[in-house]
Amino acid sequence: MTDDWNDYADGWDDNNDVRYYASRAFASLDEHLDLCGKNWKSKRVLDFGCGTGLLAEKIAPHVAEVVAVDTSENMIAVLKAKNLPNVRAVHGDMLAGNVQEVEIGFSGFDLICASSVCAFLPDYRGAVAVLAGLLHKGGQFVQWDWQASDDNGFGLTLHQMKTALEAARLGSIRVEQVFEINSDARTMPVLMGAGICITE
Ligand SMILES: C[S@@+](CC[C@H](N)C(=O)[O-])C[C@H]1O[C@@H](n2cnc3c(N)ncnc32)[C@H](O)[C@@H]1O
């Protein structure tokens, strides 16, 4: 993988593994939070590192609004071209503070999702803490990442995920393998990490 996600925007939606990852992430999200139930209809969701919006477009029909943020201009351009009615696609780096608060309604999210993003960040623990701070009390944080077999491998271990969610002071933490992807004769497990904001 390159550091420049712009190179992947064209054709991202045509990649079977990428589409499968998004559909299994959504299925595990629905299983975890009953997202397709009527309680979510008035809720606001942040899809952090949304890419072309493969997860956002699955969530959007079940909620009031999805704010979809990504640092890749090309990924956001693909998402904008989809013209999804209640998805606000925003280019910028929330972690660096260069997304205008007024532009995206920066806080008070009911749900923040990060699908295959966190393991690519230079400061994963710091990022989770920032994102957790954008939830209102009772809001949910859910991430999915490749499972690393040890602390030095690519991806995140169960332990890394659990301790990052704890350090962000989330409650009701759940970390487990939710699906796996078979690609290039390898089986790659995917972890879901979830927690609830328990502070004001
Ligand atoms: C593996 S892709 C996943 C995209 C999408 N979530 C999906 O599942 O199809 C990782 C994405 O994270 C984005 N990303 C990386 N660092 C980011 C940051 N600091 N803030 C927002 N997005 C970021 C990249 O631009 C890229 O679109």
TrEMBL record:
Q: Tell me yes or no: is Transferase among this UniProt entry's keywords.
A: yes
Q: Per the UniProt entry, what species is this protein from, by scientific name?
A: Ruegeria halocynthiae
Q: What is this protein called?
A: Methyltransferase domain-containing protein
Gene3D superfamilies this protein is in?
Vaccinia Virus protein VP39
Which keywords label this protein? Answer: Methyltransferase, Transferase
Instruction: State any single GO MF term.
Output: methyltransferase activity
Per the UniProt entry, the signal peptide is none
> What PANTHER family does this protein map onto?
TRANS-ACONITATE 2-METHYLTRANSFERASE-RELATED
Q: Which residues form the Methyltransferase domain?
A: 45-139
Q: Name one Pfam family in it.
A: Methyltransf_25
Query: GO biological process annotations for this chain's record?
Result: methylation
Q: Which InterPro entries match?
A: Methyltransf_25, SAM-dependent_MTases_sf
Q: Does the keyword Methyltransferase apply?
A: yes
